[in-house]
């Protein structure tokens, strides 16, 4: 669950949404296959969201990027909360619209 919740550290630390889950995953990945899988899933989602946000930032030039950034932000927050609650219940959660960088 902490791998998913640490993504919220981006409100305090720049790039915290990627660094928080990365640190937790690197520390705990060898102790549990469940933590390994959920850590990879969280990292994949956070990296995907960062890519989507960069593209939306570029699209600000044609006036649709602002709306996309707001939508991406809401999408991100909702799914981080959903994933955290599912992980707390011991359910393997897969984020939607995620590019699988780590397998």
From TrEMBL:
It is found in: Membrane. The chain crosses the membrane at residues 6-28, 49-82. It comes from the Bacteria. The keyword Transmembrane helix applies. One of its GO terms (molecular function) is glycosyltransferase activity. It is a multi-pass membrane protein. Keywords: Glycosyltransferase, Membrane, Transferase, Transmembrane, Transmembrane helix. Pfam families: MamF_MmsF (PF09685). This is Orotate phosphoribosyltransferase.
